[in-house]
Amino acid sequence: ASTVQTAVAELQKQGGRLDVLINNAAIYTEDRKDTYTTNVANTIAVTEAFLPLLIATAKSSGKNSRIINVGSRMGCFNIADVKGDALEAVKDPKDWSPISKLASEWVSGNDSTGLAATQVPYGPAGAGYSNSKVLLQAYTRTLAQRLTKDHVPVDVVAVCPGYTKTDINNHSGVKSVEEGADTISWAAYDGSVQHGDRKSV
Description:
By secondary structure, the chain is of the alpha/beta class. It is built from 7 helices and 4 strands. Strand 1, helix 2 (32-61) and strand 2 (65-70) form a beta-alpha-beta unit.
């Protein structure tokens, strides 16, 4: 958190303008706590910390700022194998609090939450990655609803850049890093992308 606040303070020193925030952090590991902390909790911390600057920039420029949360096809409910209470909680989320509680139970080792403990053929690490992307998508949707309700001039979008060649998949993806980045840039700046959208290209 201190690192995040330092980054916010540094940007404020430089004038504080922030038109777009792109959250693209992800790790792939069997450690549930590390996976959740990096892929979800830290993304939330960064987003909430920079939100005042995004709002201030939007008000001064007269144009909505934008938050892009980079997801994954593995965060789709059927691929992630989400079931039961977890599926009910994340498929049409209204509030982050119950989902956060569900995530905490999963992180602590509770395998009865409905979030998968393992995933064929990727094992526990694959399940952890998928679950984290499901949870990130749920956060994105609850944030979009919250900002809409409060009339905040910031758009929130979840985007899947496609199966991109990265260290996580041993560079077995079908898209280059540059092509994946193009998709994220498109979501960040294209006028056809709307608040609350979930885009996959």
